[in-house]
């Protein structure tokens, strides 16, 4: 699909921006600053009760919005609904360092960073608010689809005992 209008975006904004609902918006901003080196696009907008109505951050050059939970309006975080089906993917220069920093800031390791069959160094964490983040450092060599498929078959085969099917 093409558009007929050029969009002039503010610095740090992308055309697709995840909007996270967090139980504890102020704490979430502090976590993302510490864990991912987030910077604020603007001062957070607080409601009369002090809850974050809207905040804009940049993480590794991409924009992320967030707000506090407002259950009465259907804005609930992943922990209230039993988890999230969404993973936010970050491509970074050193996935190991990013994962370590996030874990030190309070994230939980879901999948340790390791070399993967598709060529990336990749792992996954869950932040204290229930949002999942994958962290990937691309391999030095771009693998072909054939190489990825061969590596996948080899990797998946290693998970089975002799005589078992994958």
TrEMBL record:
SUPFAM superfamilies in the record: Glyoxalase/Bleomycin resistance protein/Dihydroxybiphenyl dioxygenase
Transmembrane segments: none
Domain VOC intervals: 12-138
Protein's name in the database: Glyoxalase
Superkingdom of the source species: Bacteria
PANTHER family associated with the record: BNAUNNG04460D PROTEIN-RELATED, VOC DOMAIN-CONTAINING PROTEIN
Pfam families: Glyoxalase (PF00903)
Protein species of origin: Aquisalinus flavus
InterPro entries named among the record's database cross-references: Glyas_Bleomycin-R_OHBP_Dase, Glyas_Fos-R_dOase_dom, VOC_core
């Amino acid at each position: 699909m093409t558009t007929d209008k050029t969009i002039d975006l503010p610095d740090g904004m992308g055309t697709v921006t995840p909007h996270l609902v967090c139980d504890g918006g102020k704490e979430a901003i502090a976590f993302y600053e510490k864990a991912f080196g987030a910077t604020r696009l603007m001062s957070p907008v607080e409601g009369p009760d002090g809850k974050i109505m809207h905040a804009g951050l940049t993480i590794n050059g991409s924009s992320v919005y967030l707000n506090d939970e407002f259950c009465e309006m259907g804005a609930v975080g992943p922990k209230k609904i039993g988890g999230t089906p969404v993973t936010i993917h970050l491509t970074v220069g050193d996935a190991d360092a990013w994962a370590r920093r996030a874990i030190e800031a309070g994230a939980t390791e879901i999948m340790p960073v390791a070399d993967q069959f598709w060529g990336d160094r990749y792992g996954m964490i869950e932040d204290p608010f229930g949002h999942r983040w994958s962290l990937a450092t691309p391999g030095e060599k771009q693998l072909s689809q054939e190489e990825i498929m061969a590596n996948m078959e080899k990797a998946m085969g290693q998970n089975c005992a002799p005589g078992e099917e994958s």
